[in-house]
Amino acid sequence: MLTNAYLKGLYADLEAKDPYQFEFLQTVKEVFESLQPVFDQEPELAKTGLMERFVEPERVILFRVPWVDDQGNVRVNRGYRVQHNSSIGIYKGGLRFHPSVNLSIMKFLAFEQCFKNSLTGLPIGGGKGGADFDPKGKSENEIMVFCQSFMTELYRHIGQFTDGPAGDIGVGGREIGYMFGQYKRLTGYYDGTLTGKGLSFGGSLARTEATGYGVCYYAQEMLRHKGDTMDNKKVAISGSGNVAIFAAEKATQLGAKVITMSDSNGYIYDESGIDLDVMKDIKLVKRGRISEYADQVAGAVYHEGKRPWGEVCDLAIPCATQNELDIEDAKTLVENGCRIVVEGSNMPTTLDATEFFLANGVFFSVGKASNAGGVATSAMEMSQNSIRMPWSFEEVDQRLQGIMQNIFRNVIETAERYGAPENLVLGSNIAGFIKIKDAMLAQGVC
Length: 446
Ligand code: NDP
Ligand code: 2IT
What we know:
By secondary structure, the protein is an alpha/beta fold. The chain has helices at 5-17, 22-41, 50-54, 103-119, 140-154, 173-187, 207-225, 242-253, 276-285, 291-296, 327-335, 351-359, 367-370, 373-387, 393-417, 424-442, and strands at residues 59-68, 74-85, 90-97, 124-131, 163-166, 234-237, 257-263, 266-269, 301-304, 315-317, 340-342, 363-365.
């Protein structure tokens, strides 16, 4: 609950100004609730106008994306780039192509990205972008044409010293390739502005795997903190995209059994553990639907229109989208004995479900900490591009593990220091915030 008068007042102002920006208001509320001990201890912070500035993006770019489909029809989508905060580094964050994209979703993602990027310990500020374009059912040519049109406006707002986009939902290696090609053509620069590039043109080894692997490295730290390991754990994962697939791969390598994965149509349950070769073939090669898994693997069951949270598991790792785990799901998970929830997607858990987990002793990590391995590896891709020297898979993976371990240590120690031991929500938000606060104060009113 918001009790600090300054934060409460500011939240009320935001709510009055943008009552329909539900996702943005949701993340601000979660963050403000966490930051209360800081503002209670340092009331003079209120006089700096710090939070009034921090909740406003430094810049929002909203643009038209016209393109021509295979039938010759002119189509128009909305493109966005929210350059939220550059106090600790260039704006950095992914691009999402999904029909649900709107200003609220872009702002929530950009705001979360600031905390996440700060937690990595690397010099990156926060941004996010995308379009309300639906890649599903589009031909290869339509995807390329859309990406080129999107970049034809975006290129003037980005750069290795200003703003570095990457992938997110609906944007993977294929789309980054098309966007990089167009960026290079328009600017003449061959540089590290875009990350998640193909390995033959400046991409980093282990970037594809990094978010999912990082989530599991973080889960490993959480388990270690409890004197436990991944070995023999039953893991429920949602999603079957980039984050979900590589979270499932690393969890399996660490000895766990992944029993569920999903897409927006339903989920599959595989008692004997997901066969990742089959899953990758369906999702990464054929771009098919998850229901096909049950047709190919004996014993697997497909549940149409349902989410996986009703299955008995030790760990739940949501890796699909925002608000995909609600209060009813949270109650079911707890009832079924799930004690650890590690967010792979951004803000998958609703606020009341988050509160329920914390109140019921679930060790719960917010995505801005546990999924930070993706953006951290993007920053490593930029480093390799700058020094014009690629690192080996092992080197990047080692650094990624170190970064995830450091984030966990920072988060758990911060939670302890602010009187909320093991509250990883509070620990993540405060730890991410402190570096940004110090930088913003040092740089004056700007
Ligand atoms: P992908 O597009 O590769 O995969 C997204 C997955 O989530 C698909 O299985 C998709 O199913 C499912 N999904 C998307 N929207 C919905 C919805 N509304 N309801 C149910 N399922 C849905 O994206 P990523 O794996 O890259 O991203 C997943 C999450 O992780 C996002 O929250 C993203 O912001 C976050 N993230 C991604 C990072 C990255 O490096 N890629 C880094 C950090 C966080 P379908 O195919 O049916 O749409
Ligand atoms: O949410 C995220 O952190 C991402 N989509 C990755 C951002 C990046 O710049 O790699």
